[in-house]
Amino acid sequence: DLRKQARQLENELDLKLVSFSKLCTSYSSTRDGRRDRYSSDTTPLLNGSSQDRMFETMAVEIEQLLGKLTGINDKMAEYTNSAGVPSLNAALMHTLQRHRDILQDYTHEFHKTKANFLAIRERENLLGSVQKDIESYKSGSGVNNRRTELFLKEHEHLRNSDRLIEETISIAMATKENMTSQRGMLKSIQSKMNTLANRFPAVNSLIQRINLRKRRDSLILGGVIGVCTILLLLYAFH
């Protein structure tokens, strides 16, 4: 009698699990097909509240059947432990183990299908919330968008100005360093010239005499040229 009840529950569970799996598959394919066919922002991602209610109902029914089958297996285990015929004990244990394996398989399949369904529904809800945020952003006032755009442009101008100022400062610093190095070189040359002039005063006096001689020769040559020019002019006019 317990085996008969167990088989009946197993058959019901098998049918329920097949329908449950088809429901989850249709739920996923319906959402995927809708996203492929419709690309407008106003198309809702989730409108399967009836499928959600059907999922909850079937999940409760399957859990109840699993609970009943677990109870039947427990009763069969009690009967096996209390059986008084040793020759039938091995066959009964084999039968009990087979029903336990079937229960374990059904339980695993149910939890796996339920987890997949919940993951798909959670993903769809997340996509729906993201799309609502996008629609609310797109439907925002144009004034706010324009103001945001102006702020972004002003921020970009400020960044460009800062960059130009930094480049100008770097150029000024480089010029200052070059001027400083040139001034140092000129000071070193001047100091070397002063050192040479102090070390060789005779050379300095000789240079001064040569300059005076050149100036005197220039004056004499200029006077001779002037006198010759005057004489030529007098001769030409007379």
Automatic annotation (TrEMBL):
One Pfam short name: V-SNARE_C
GO cellular component, one term: Golgi medial cisterna
Keyword terms: Golgi apparatus, Membrane, Protein transport, Transmembrane, Transmembrane helix, Transport
Highest taxon of the lineage: Eukaryota
Membrane topology (UniProt): Single-pass type IV membrane protein
GO biological process: endoplasmic reticulum to Golgi vesicle-mediated transport; inter-Golgi cisterna vesicle-mediated transport; protein transport; vesicle fusion
Ranges annotated as spanning the membrane: 219-237
Cell compartment(s), UniProt: Golgi apparatus membrane
Its job: Involved in transport from the ER to the Golgi apparatus as well as in intra-Golgi transport. It belongs to a super-family of proteins called t-SNAREs or soluble NSF (N-ethylmaleimide-sensitive factor) attachment protein receptor. May play a protective role against hydrogen peroxide induced cytotoxicity under glutathione depleted conditions in neuronal cells by regulating the intracellular ROS levels via inhibition of p38 MAPK (MAPK11, MAPK12, MAPK13 and MAPK14). Participates in docking and fusion stage of ER to cis-Golgi transport.
Family note: Belongs to the GOSR1 family.
Stated name of the protein: Golgi SNAP receptor complex member 1
Organism of this sequence: Mohoua ochrocephala
Record gene name: Gosr1
